[in-house]
Amino acid sequence: MRIITWNCNGAFRKKAEFILKCNPDILVVPECEHPDKLKFKNEKFKPTDSLWFGINQNKKGLGIFSFSDYRITLISEYNPNFRWVIPIAVTGGQHDLMLYAIWTNNPDDKDGQYIEQVWKAIHFYDVLLTLNTTLFIGDFNSNSIWDRPKRAGNHSSVVKYLEEKNIYSTYHVYHKQQQGKENHPTLYWQKNKNKPYHIDYCFASAELIKGLHSVEVGDFDEWIGLSDHVPVIITFSDFT
Hints:
By secondary structure, the protein is an alpha+beta fold. Helix content is 16%, strand content 29%. The protein has a single domain, classed as 4-Layer Sandwich (Deoxyribonuclease I, Chain A), CATH 3.60.10.10. The chain has helices spanning 16-20, 115-124, 155-164, 170-174, 206-209, 220-223; strands at residues 2-5, 26-32, 49-53, 61-66, 71-74, 85-91, 97-103, 134-139, 167-169, 187-188, 196-197, 200-205, 212-217, 232-236. It has a 6-stranded mixed beta sheet with strand order 3-4-2-1-14-13.
């Protein structure tokens, strides 16, 4: 199973073919226009299911797409106050999954528009986090280098809380990296190679990580012409 997140920086209709060549089973696309605006010329790349969340269909939102036999369904417990942390049931594969698609972007929240959205969401969905097939994936707009120590819901607090639920960052496990000291940037601010940051993540339950095959981060030269972000590609060879 291959799960990909890629902040496309808008105009996904013009860029979809490039990420779809990576053959995702599940694709999470922050800064994506509404699927009604998308056209998939190649039937091979046409999604099985799609979901979209945003304020205005004419502006950027969060798109989630499934392919092959996978189906995606918004769960009834969804709370739209956390923008955007979207709980989705993934079915039709080897195992059912609970996937939280992420694009933290809520300027209306006085407590903080970025990682604070995840912090609030994981407390709201706390009971569901006991499922051992849980994934959080997308653009968190966050890194521990920006922690505000006196703020409870900073990046490190989110990581710690998830780890207490046996949910870990696939990138950090696979590449043996420390939070805040990542060797592979996922964002190049203003498309500048000298302004690299790691802000896109996939967290997975320990049971899923047992079947983790690879975690790839896209190359600057290959993707910078399309977006200020590069994709993060997570492949599971088996689920226990």
